[in-house]
User: Which sequence fits this backbone?
């Protein structure tokens, strides 16, 4: 069974996807982490982020892997744990540009499709229900008001010691929504859920109630 969860940043997608995958004992695939990793290594290796070809070559040299360590999902690239680094605001700021390149998308989409294969999978991203897994058994599209999403990010950042104001976060989120809008299309057969006024448990329950095994 394939479950696709799409939607903009900070709608609770990955938290909900992880919980659902655990409940169902399905593989969880975080596609955003792949685009983030490429951005992180591009910045780290001082690659010009305007150069699609160099970025695509870098991407082809990267091996992705994820493992649960101490109850937390860790993300590895060429055996390096990049779980923390890919969440940095500098990565968030640049990831949409990197993700906009057709050759980057082509490579990652086929990698994501190969990972899913015939397995039971919960995959989250922007284009899962439309492009990566168009015949997924269940498709969900989570949304929430940008101000609510910025507040969530603000609280997460506070825990990590990252100091960005709420206003800065609203601007950053709206900017990322706009840059991602081309690939972030809700599938016609997706179920739309506004998570703005919902707790994570409520969102999980709402999705679980729709999924029939
Ligand atoms: O989901 P997350 O916020 O980690 O995604 C980071 C970025 O990666 C998105 O803002 C988007 O630019 C890109 N992305 C994408 N397609 C996906 C997943 C993420 O373009 N399937």
Assistant:
């Amino acid at each position: 069974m394939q479950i696709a969860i799409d939607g903009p940043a900070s709608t609770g997608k990955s938290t909900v996807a992880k919980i659902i995958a655990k409940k169902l004992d399905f593989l969880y695939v975080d596609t955003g982490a792949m685009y983030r990793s490429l951005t992180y290594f591009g910045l780290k290796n001082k690659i010009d982020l305007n150069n699609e070809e160099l970025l695509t070559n870098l991407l082809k040299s990267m091996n992705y892997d994820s493992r649960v360590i101490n109850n937390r999902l860790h993300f590895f690239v060429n055996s390096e744990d990049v779980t923390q680094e890919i969440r940095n605001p500098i990565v968030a700021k640049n990831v949409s540009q990197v993700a906009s390149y057709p050759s980057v998308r082509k490579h990652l989409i086929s990698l994501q499709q190969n990972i899913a294969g015939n397995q039971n999978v919960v995959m989250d991203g922007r284009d899962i229900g439309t492009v990566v897994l168009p015949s997924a058994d269940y498709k969900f599209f989570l949304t929430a008001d940008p101000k609510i999403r910025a507040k969530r990010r603000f609280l997460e950042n506070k825990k990590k010691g990252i100091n960005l104001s709420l206003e800065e976060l609203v601007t950053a989120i709206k900017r990322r929504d706009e840059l991602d809008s081309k690939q972030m299309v809700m599938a016609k057969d997706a179920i739309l859920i506004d998570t703005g006024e919902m707790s994570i448990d409520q969102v999980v329950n709402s999705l679980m109630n729709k999924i029939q095994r």
Residues 195 and 203 are 7 Å apart (CA to CA). The first strand starts at residue 2 and ends at 6. Residues 102-116 form the longest helix (15 residues). The mean pLDDT is 94.
